[in-house]
Amino acid sequence: MTDISRRERLSYRLSRLYRRAAAHWAELGVGGVLTVGGTVLLLQEELIKQLIGGFPTWLLVVLVVLVPIAAALLTYAIRRRREPAARPALAPMPFPDRIDGLVGRDAELQRIKDEALERGVVVVHGPIGMGTSAVAVQAVWDLAGEARKQRYADLRGPDRDRPETPLSVAQRVLRTLNRPPGAIQEPHDATAQVIEALTGTGHVLLLDNVSSWSQVEWLPTRVPGAHIVVAGTLTDAPPQHVEPIQLGPLAPDAGRALLARHIGDDRAARDPKALELLVDVCLGSPLELVRVGRWLAGNPGVPLQSLVDDLRSLPVSDTLDFVLTLGVKQLRPMAKQLFVLLAGLPIAEVDHQAAAALLGVPSAADAIAELAELGLVENVRMTRVRVSGAFRGGGAEGTPREVAAWRRLVEHFAGQAAAYADRLPAEEARAWFAMEDRVLLQVLARHDPAPRTGRALARIADALETWFRLEQRHEDRLRAAAELARAAKALGDEQVQATAELRQCAVLLTWGDPRKARQHFNRAAALHVRVESWPAGLHLAHAALLLAGGDEFTAVESALVRYGQALAGGDVLGQALRLANVAALLMRRAQTLDHDGRGPEARTLHAHARVVLFQALDLARRAGDPGAEAHARELLALAHHYLGQSHDAGLHLGEAERLYTGAADEIGRARCLVHRAGIMLEDPAHEPAAVVALLEEAEPRLPPAGVSTALAHLHLARLRRERAAEHQEAGLAALSPWDGIAEPKQVSELRVRLLAL
């Protein structure tokens, strides 16, 4: 394997040494800086005396005037040169450019346009290398020549071995249509939103690089006033009502025309027989024809017949790799090393900055351009690069050089992810995470994490947690935390592992599954020797688990006391969360007393909870956390409702809904809708249709399990008697996490009511 030139490496290392030295200035302290500065000034004074000792007076006057001006200009020029170019704001993925002069595909293009007008949804299928994407892009340009009517989603994910899941595909499509992707729990939840976003717009949505029909089977069969084009290499057969437009090999004359376009008509005309043989060798694949043509164009002195003779001596299976191997041999050192590193990556594509980080140099633009010119890599998704399929897995896996390159890549992604997480929810940060979140998940999921990457992986996982919480993508939150826990365990970093286990516990509690949440809590707790050493978050999770798993109020109270003691001084948000949980404990105890016929005592506890919640609300406002404020408002609404103050309950519930909506917390908003439906049901004058509408809006946004989900199905079963059995089954399934373990009285009461339907 060849190395990057010594000059390039020396330049990069000197730059890095300078940055590291500058980073340690603060360690000198004020006294150290003054000492060093005074010494430098004394040396400067002696040097000036020696230099100007023999200068005439008039020359000294000129120097006094000109030297500061020259120094200022020189400093400005150097700083301007060193300042990195501002990163361009990331916009939604643009539609690919029109393909000029597509060869040999006129019939297929016309059929796509005809079927789009007739059917609404068109599927274009072809083996790898047949130009499926190019044909689909050109057809969409013909259907909608205006950029404002084009919508594009590239569904080729960063994982080489696993295609994107249907849910991930649906989320990507919703983002393309400017719809919140976290609002869906299942792929089919996106169908109605796609219809609503496209109907009557005249837009054409192209879903490119689809790998299986199961990824897009949730799509509507027709959207009035719009078109959908699905393009890719489908590994499974679509249903009978879908007739894919098959792309086969190019006809011989079209293949010759495509090859001649790259090598020139004159060169092609000099040896038509050799040209024909080359087309035959490429098996009519546009991708292979372009690769051969580019190599020949870069080697004008090679006769076509010479290449044909070389290919004839090889087995058929080796003929295409032969030309590509010739191209690799001609690469310059930096391009060759980048190609080898990219070919061995566990992720399929990276952006140009990440490619430079792999090499350890400031820029890899020239190397990428050289590889792209020979067809060894593809420039996809604007500034992203992807190794062609023929060379995947042929890299430097497991070598010290590959390990060092991977470590640089992980640190690069950690820095980028942390920086953009700090900017959320700004549009630029959203656009970056929308492009990179799957790649970051793949970085976390590497089977054997490189040594000394634990902290960088933790920063990546922290950034993904911020992003996925913003988008309410709880499955991805769980996956990121699980991958971090696995990596931290492999690297022996118990602190990071405990954080990841605790994060999984929190997500599962949000999903209403206390049994699985308890398993992750136990793993996190086992990594801390004594209860006294638990961090604050572990005490809070313990209290939440105890509250979800039974009515042991004394134990919950003890856990909340320990949580308050573990909080750092001045942690306003932590205190707000503690008070909200104290209020929830008081309200749960009041519900238990009320169930046992002790109404006055229950009312007193509800009143105390209301006072505590007003304190929690004030702290949440001071902390500037809309999620904590929304939760306090939600609990306040319930406290007022139990106290018979329906007007105040409605006001707080409406404000909680507004805050949850602003924070894109669909689960929180859905809980509020269930509360509102329950309050309406207690009003004798309620309208059943209005209550059903609220519950139907809430149900798809609720987690698969939990009290709120079971309560929603209980209400729906009573209001829609014709589907009572269906809602009874769904409600009992929502309570299944408590099967075989201790459960609160409210869960037991819900179970009894569901079984009594």
TrEMBL record:
SUPFAM superfamilies: P-loop containing nucleoside triphosphate hydrolases. Gene3D superfamilies: P-loop containing nucleotide triphosphate hydrolases, Tetratricopeptide repeat domain. The chain crosses the membrane at residues 21-43, 55-78. Keywords: Membrane, Transmembrane, Transmembrane helix. Signal peptide: none annotated. This is NB-ARC domain-containing protein. It comes from [Actinomadura] parvosata subsp. kistnae. The lineage of its organism: Bacteria, Bacillati, Actinomycetota, Actinomycetes, Streptosporangiales.
